[in-house]
Amino acid sequence: MCEVGDDYREPAPAGPPPPRPCREQKCVKCKEGLPVVVIRAGDAFCRDCFKVFYVHKFRAVLGKNRLIFPGEKVLLAWSGGPSSSSMLWQVLEGLSQDSAKRLRFVPGVVFADEGAACGQSPEDRAKTLAEVKLVLQTVGFPWHIVALEEVFSLPPSVLRCSAREPVGTEGAYKAAVDSFLQQHHALGEEKQSRPCPQHPQGRAGLPTASQTEALSRLFNSVKTLTAKEELLQTLRTHLILHVARTHGYSKVMTGDSCTRLAVKLMTSLALGRGAFLAWDTGFSDERHGDVVVVRPMREHTLKEVAFYNRLFAVPSVFTPAVDTKAPEKASIHRLMEAFILRLQAQFPSTVSTVYRTSEKLVKAPRDGCAAGSPGPRCLLCMCVLDVDTADSATAFGAQTSSQLPQTQPPVAEAEAPTVSRCRSGMGRAQHCCRMEEDDPRARVIEQLCYGCRVNMKDLPSLDPLPPYILAEAQLRSQRYCPLCRGGRGRLGGVLLGLGSQRAASPGPRLSRRSRSVCRRPTRTGHGLARPQRSRKARMGGWPVITHLYK
Amino acid sequence: MPAPQCASCHKARAALRRPRSGQALCTNCFCAAFEAEVLHTVVAGRLLPPGAVVAVGASGGKDSTVLAHVLRELAPRLGISLHLVAVDEGIGGYRDAALAAVRRQAARWELPLTVVAYADLFGSWTMDAVARSTAGSGRSRSCCTFCGVLRRRALEEGARRVGATHVVTGHNADDMAETVLMNFLRGDAGRLARGGGLGSPGEGGALPRCRPLQLASQKEVVLYAHFRRLDYFSEECVYAPEAFRGHARDLLKLLEAARPSAVLDLVHSAERLALAPAARPPPPGACSRCGALASRALCQACALLEGLNRGRPRLAIGKGRRGLDEEGPPGRRGSHSRPDPRLRSPSPASRDSSSPLGSDDDVGVRGRL
């Protein structure tokens, strides 16, 4: 392959694959055992060396990035598939008494039942759940089974990035480990054995039929499989995040393998998420603030995972996904997966090359304007917005400026596009954020990053979306305009207040500032204070809004 | 069923639906919109200031033809003057036909044309000679690597000869999308860090380069050429099937079928990539031989030529670059004696840390410009 830095020492083998290990060949590690699997491009390992290699990789990834502190509660996101089952098994074995250098965190398992989104019948779902429970009982960690329908009862606080305590430095990690070890010796071995098997913290019962129907309606209204997969991923992330926050987990481990991450990276590129590749495919993902998503399986290829599961009988449960049995060209995810796997068969270094490139990505905006406040975040994926103004000479500008009137070529500085978002610096306060007030869909769209906007195009109506998304969108649009990044103007605030119906948002108390912004005539029991009137205003001499807005 | 009305003038029948927005437009409105968008790109990106002397890289293909045509239309408004610069790589059976098309265009549009040939600039190394020299190495010939780098150098040289201040090329959005896919698959972090903008501002003596058609998709370029009845040369380079870009191109076609906006989404991703500072290429200096922009002691064009002259074409590609530090016989540049292709031997394998290829040029650009 025309790879950068490729070594052209010898001509590459044109057609036939490398010779299989014959009887005389021994394991490359111990030189004694009979090899059972070929890793990378020709390294044959025997069973024991393979196990050591595999386990060592898992531990090394966790140890290298010293993010998981001892005693921390970690939620393992288990989908039933081979990679996450393997991860679960590694954690199980790592925590057991007899392993050298035990892992030191407190695990829990979450399983998200997505049968409704995939169109499974209730009988099939029940059968899958029975198998899942069986495996979870074998594993013995505290487990949580959540159905995807529960997104309809999530609070809008899920979409808010909570501040978290600053990550510990090197010294802090070492100090934490030392203190944990001291505690460990003090309390004695028995108490620190495997976490006591608690009562299963699964959910009370099956979701209601109306919720299932609402979910099916949502997924059936999405036009393309690509958008369906992205939506499913988003909802699943929010659900797991909610479970983690509710039960006090500060880390979530997902079982994405090297191959899957390479495919995910290329797919994210094609979906317009180039700005967020480091978060989507890196080892740790801190965009949610208090809960950090960690990917410990990111150096294991799918082949290694499959062989390990087979050789060491790791239990897994097959659950169909949204794209099961879909043709190859049905979605961008499928296309990329097929392309990468095909290229990998031809050039065995494809996946590792993409993975190496992904390691060079950093979590920073390209322009280097990371200093100061990062700016508003996307409503759905919670990454910092990466959109430009509507007329810039970029791909985003090209797609939005296509709305320009076509009758004559516009003059050099394109003025007043017909569909305008908030034009920062235009100096026309009364137009600031006014346009999208009339259109709830536009209000939601403007709070999304580029990738999520493109996905939303495949969703003709936003009504089937879970209410927490719409509520949060409304709340944010009332609070500030994502593009000009400032508070709503005075007049804009007045215009907002008139006649806009705000859905009752349960749960979180509004901040004092947003309370003062709300100009809606308050109803009792709403919990919103009336706007404070200044003394002069009360005396009738000044407009009411004088001192409320900065 | 009859075609709908044009969405903007509401008078004529629509001739196409724009790929990016699905709007139905008639020919005149579409061409006007296309030109307006190119103008907007140039103005908003501040690519060509008034008074610029612009060298248009003309290959005779659809992109450079459309580019030259649109710039010619917009030249009075932008206040620029145009020169056509064509590069003759010496690919028999392909480039001569393309050059004939360029000559016709120059005559029709009354634009000055300069033709720069590899044979003159690079010491009788035409692309056919390079291809013969790199053949038989087992893997792909990678003669497209040579072609891309040397053509950039030739274009720059031609632009200097006509006294240009800016160089424009006809890369469209599909090219940029293929480039970013390709660079990821090849692991070329250096090029990923450099790419994504609208062009390079031209540091250290190199002329500023830009790509006004960067945000126009290939379909629209083809349709524009069709509606305006432009005369261009449409065959593929004879070496194109071997380029790695073919994989990326197939993938892009499939992606576009799955989601029409995939091309612009990829361009957006490319604009927003953030790479670690260590992965970015070093700040450029000057080549010790020809004085052009270079990240290392020798610019890539000189390095490639050095490799060819020594009979080891892979010398400047990949890890074998270390071998260049050993100085060959002096006075090689411009030598007319071609080394025997049979003497080609693989480059010495020095286990260098993988360094990004090239200094200032795009590798694996389309088989023809």
Please write out the topology:
The complex is a heterodimer of chains A (550) and B (369).
Chain A (H helix, E strand, L loop, with lengths): L34 E5 L3 E4 H18 L8 E6 L3 H14 L10 E8 L1 H4 L3 H18 L3 E5 L22 H18 L21 H12 L4 H22 L4 E4 L3 H13 L6 H5 L2 E2 L6 E3 L7 H10 L20 H15 L3 H10 L35 H6 L39 H6 L4 H7 L10 H13 E2 L4 E2 L2 H8 L14 H6 L17 H4 L12
Parallel strand pairs in A: 3-4, 3-6, 4-5, 6-8
Antiparallel strand pairs in A: 1-2, 7-8, 9-10
Helix pairs in contact in A: 2-10, 8-11, 8-12
Chain B lengths: L15 E2 L6 E2 L1 H18 L8 E5 L4 H17 L2 E8 L6 H15 L3 E5 H4 L5 H8 L8 H19 L4 E3 L4 H14 L2 H6 L4 E2 L8 E2 L7 H10 L17 H14 L3 H10 L13 E2 L6 E2 L5 H10 L60
Parallel strand pairs in B: 3-4, 3-6, 4-5, 6-8
Antiparallel strand pairs in B: 1-2, 7-8, 9-10
Helix pairs in contact in B: 1-2, 2-9, 7-10, 7-11
Molecular structure report:
- The complex is a heterodimer of chains A (550) and B (369).
- With 550 residues, chain A is of the alpha/beta class.
- Chain A has helices spanning 47-64, 82-95, 115-118, 122-139, 170-187, 209-220, 225-246, 258-270, 277-281, 302-311, 332-346, 350-359, 395-400, 440-445, 450-456, 467-479, 490-497, 512-517, 535-538; strands at residues 35-39, 43-46, 73-78, 106-113, 143-147, 251-254, 284-285, 292-294, 480-481, 486-487.
- Chain A is 38% helix and 7% strand.
- In chain A, the strands form 3 sheets. Chain A has a 6-stranded mixed β-sheet with strand order 5-4-3-6-8-7, sandwiched between helices. Chain A has a two-stranded antiparallel ribbon with strand order 1-2. A two-stranded antiparallel sheet of chain A has the order 9-10.
- In chain A, helix 8 (258-270) packs across helix 11 (332-346).
- Residues 7-14, 190-199, 403-433, 487-531 and 541-550 of chain A have low confidence and may be disordered.
- In chain B, 39% of the residues lie in helices and 9% in strands.
- The longest helix of chain B has 19 residues, at 143-161.
- Classes of the chains: A alpha/beta (550), B alpha/beta (369).
- At the A-B interface, helix 8, helix 11, helix 12, helix 13 and helix 15 of A face helix 1, helix 7, helix 8, helix 10 and helix 11 of B.
